[in-house]
Structures are given as C-alpha cells and as structure tokens.
Amino acid sequence: MSIIENAVRRLNQTSGIEPEARPESGSASAAAQGARRAENKEAWHPDDAGTRAGTLRPVAPREQLDIDLERLRERGMVVASNERSAIGEEFRTIKRPLLLQVASQRGIETRSGRPANVIMVTSSAPGEGKTYCAVNLAMSIAYEKDYQVLLVDADVARPSVPRTLGLPERPGLMDVLQEGGPDLEDAIIDTNVASLSILTAGTKDRHATELLSSQGMARLVAEMANRFPDRIVIFDSPPLLATSESQVLANHMGQIVVVVEALNTTQRQLKEALHMLDGRPDVSLIYNKARRFSSAAMYGSYY
Asked: What φ, ψ does residue 173 adopt, rounded to 5°?
C-alpha cells in the first residue's frame, strides 16, 4: 500500500467512514449496478452539494393536468373523435398551409427572419374569437402524427386559455421572464392530450410590454422553437388594437394569424391592424363565426 493510500485509510478510520469497495470494471458487482440503473426509468442527476459524491436522486416528473374534453366537445370545439365534425374539418383546412410553411422552412428562417414553427393568433379587437381559434388550432395540430404542440397564453392582461380548457391558473410566461423565476420547462404543463402542452400567462405585471420586448423574451422564444425539432408553438396574443403587447410579440413570431369576425370586424379595423404588422409577408386570416352552408359543412362516408 502506498503512503497516500495508507494516509487516506487512516483518515477514514478516524472519521468513522468505512472505505467502499470499488469493483473493477467488468466485474459482476459493476454489472449488477449498471443493470439496476438501466431498470430505473426515471431521470436522475447528482444530488445537492454537501452529500456524498455519486449519490443520485430522481427528478420529479412535470405536472400533468386534464383538459375537460367533454366540455370542449359540448362547446363545439376540436377534440379527437371517430366521427367527422364541421369544426374539425375547418381547422384541418386552416392548419395545412401553416404546417406546409413550417415544413418548407425547417432548419431555416422565414422571410421575416423568424422561425416558422412559432405562430401567433391574434385579432383586431376583443371578442372576435382569437382564443377559440388558437385552442382549436392547437388541438387540431396536436392530433397530427408528426408534431408536438406548445400552446402559450400570451394575452397577459386578460388570459383565457386555462378557463377555456378547464385548467387552473399556474405560474407561466410572465414568471419565467422575471429574474429568478422558474425555468421554462418547469412552468410548462403537460395535458391528457399526449402531444399538447400549455404555458399559462402567469402573474400579471405592469411592465408586461417591456418584458415581452426584452432580449430575455427573444431567447425564450428561441428555446421554445428550437428545443424540439417537431414542436409547433402557438401564442394566443392580445388583440392588435387593444394593447401594445401584441405588437412586440409579433416581432418574435414566424407566422401570424389574424382572426376576423364575420359581420362585425370592420374594414377599417382590419386595415389598421394589418398596418400595425408593418407589411409582414407571413400573415394569414381566419374568417370566424361565418354562417355555414347547410349541406356542404359536413358529409359522411364515401363508401
């Protein structure tokens, strides 16, 4: 035994710590330890400072909450079903060009210089149905086979996504943007719709516009967009003519969808709202609350 090994042994005996046997690589003991770790399906990371080196503890799983799908169905919104529905078909049509833009721009930026998989849903004024459209769009894309969806309630003055989905409020976007706030992944809520996660608006802040226009917000959007290659991020934004937050949010978005309420949104309102987007080339319109054709809205099997 070397002088150093002998000294370590004496020090351990003095402190009451028994030296641990260190199995050689390839030994049965080492193989058994590896097998036990492989059987554990939880995520692990080193324990807090001050504990013995090498001690591991499980990371708590992210919170999951159940969306009231029956309530959404009763309200005529998009939910998984074996039957065709008019609203389901409409949002299949709405999402397709948005997803084509995402697919064509995968790995590169749009003409606006922003990631195409970050989509803002807004309107000219309150009450035109932008949250209804944002939730339905998120649900419809979540039922795709190739995408995960993160729905962000960015209407920080009047958040309504949790209420629409039957979920409680939680710390969210505004809290993540605060210094010392939670990490993004800790604030995201998983749901009983396997491919759909939610980020609530969080705590109201009188400096919301400044937070949403900050470099911290730019970094946060980039993290949302790039963390997973199959993620679509949908922001439910405030109305363009109601607050300044929607304008600064638009600066981070790769695609923008403006909801137009049939027989209510005026041409002047729409022109003013689009002017605020400064001629962006990636703006789409949804004509909401339009009267359906009686026979063409739904049709049954071809067989």
From this structure: -55, -50
Q: Residue 218's closest CA among 262, 250, 194?
A: 250
Helical ranges in 16-129 per DSSP H: 28-39, 69-74, 86-104
For the chain, give the number of residues.
Answer: 303
Binning pLDDT at 50, 70 and 90, where does residue 236 land? very high
User: Using a CB cutoff of 8 Å and minimum separation of 24, what contacts does 108-116 make?
Assistant: 109/254, 110/254, 110/255, 110/282, 111/281, 111/282, 112/254, 112/280, 112/281, 112/282, 114/252, 114/253, 114/254, 115/221, 115/222, 115/225, 115/226, 115/254, 116/254, 116/255, 116/282
pLDDT tens-digit readout, 161-189:
999 999 988 899 999 999 999 999 999 99
- Domain ranges within the chain, ordered by starting residue: 3-58, 64-288
64-65 and 148-153 strand pairing: unpaired
| Structural class in CATH, domain 64-288 | alpha beta
What is the CB-side half-sphere exposure of residue 168 using CA atoms within 13 A? Answer: 5
Helix (H) or strand (E) holding 136: helix 130-142
Q: How far is CA 49 from the centre of its chain?
A: 32
Structure tokens at 219: 């970094």
